[in-house]
Amino acid sequence: MKDPYAALGLTRGATDKEIRSAYRKLAKEHHPDHNPNNKKAEEAFKAVGAAYAILGDKEKRARFDRGEIDAEGNERGPFGGGGFGGGQGFHGQGPGGGPGGAQFSQEDLGAFFSDMFSGGGTGADFGNGPFNGRRRSRRGADRSYTLTVSFEDSVLGTTSRVTLPEAGTVEVKIPAGIEDGQTLRLAGKGAPGVGENAPAGDALITISVTPSSVYTRDGRDLRASVPVDLETAILGGKIVVPTPKGQVTMKVPPHSDTGTVLRLGGRGVAEHGKHKAGNLYVTLQVKIGKVDPKLEAFFAEKREAETAKEAQDA
């Protein structure tokens, strides 16, 4: 398999942000939905997903960089990434090993040689030879992906259909209240297992929430600023307020000013499990809008009267 850094067009010094950015760009470019019946794009999409499964996971990336796992996330052989070479040599003396040497049982060695000569997938058996080469079953590697959802979907919850390179199209349930950076686990949707009846790995879906131009989040509560005209602010009245579930009508008390905060109960993050629905806190922003000539004349007369009084008092 291609080196994961090369698959994403990066070098080993790439930052986490550069890795995420490269993955999103390439996954979008080669996504099957954008390239129907394009085998080359499908293979590229799989390669990009597999590369991100390694580099998008800090622990796996570190292990790959140290040579502990290969580009598919599999453990490297007991003799290191160089097999019998690499300057390490083989120091065991017989099945039990010798002083200061590596000690491996016949079963360990048999599994190793079976993996080596079977190409990792044929299930070759060395019978009753000196290594008792029975192939070991191994759980499939986990795969990491990123799913972008809107702010509204993150607070209300939704179900999204996504296409995974090794699991096809699956439904991902987004719970109400999920936050940016949280990860969902899809059991058995990762890489297939190796060996008879070996379980598949999991798909780890990291959620990326698109910021909202209307709302900010405060725990389970939401906050928004809403304009109100001068007349309604002075006399009170009703205004239409946007909420993630749709618009609602809200009463504004008389003599409200900019900065006045009103509460809409249950209109924040939706109820989920043991968590109750949050509230939406609306901050009023008084907007003058088009000025009524009568109102303008009123303030002009008021100013003239105050100026005249000041002159008289002087």
What does this structure look like?
The chain is an alpha+beta fold and 314 residues long. 29% of the residues lie in helices and 21% in strands. The chain is built from eight helices and eleven strands. Strands 6-7-11-10 form a four-stranded mixed sheet. It has a three-stranded mixed sheet with strand order 1-5-4. Strands 2-3 form a two-stranded antiparallel sheet. The protein is elongated and about 100 Å long. It starts with a helix and ends with a helix. About 18% of the residues have low confidence. Keywords: Chaperone. It comes from Asaia lannensis NBRC 102526. This is DnaJ domain-containing protein.
Looking at this protein, list some descriptive labels:
11 strands; 21% strand; alpha+beta; 8 helices; three-stranded mixed beta sheet
Q: Give the number of DSSP strands.
A: 11
Terminal-residue CA separation: 92 Å
Note the run of SSEs as H and E: HHHHHEHEEEEEEHEEEEH
The description of the largest β-sheet is: 4 strands, mixed
Mean pLDDT: 80
Structural class: alpha+beta
Shape: elongated
**Strands in their spatial order, largest beta sheet:** 6-7-11-10
Radius of gyration: 32 Å
Spans of at least 5 consecutive residues whose pLDDT stays below 50 are 78-133
DSSP helix fraction:
25-40%
- Total helical segments: 8
Region (Disordered): 70-105
Protein name: DnaJ domain-containing protein
Biased composition (Gly residues): 78-101
Keywords: Chaperone
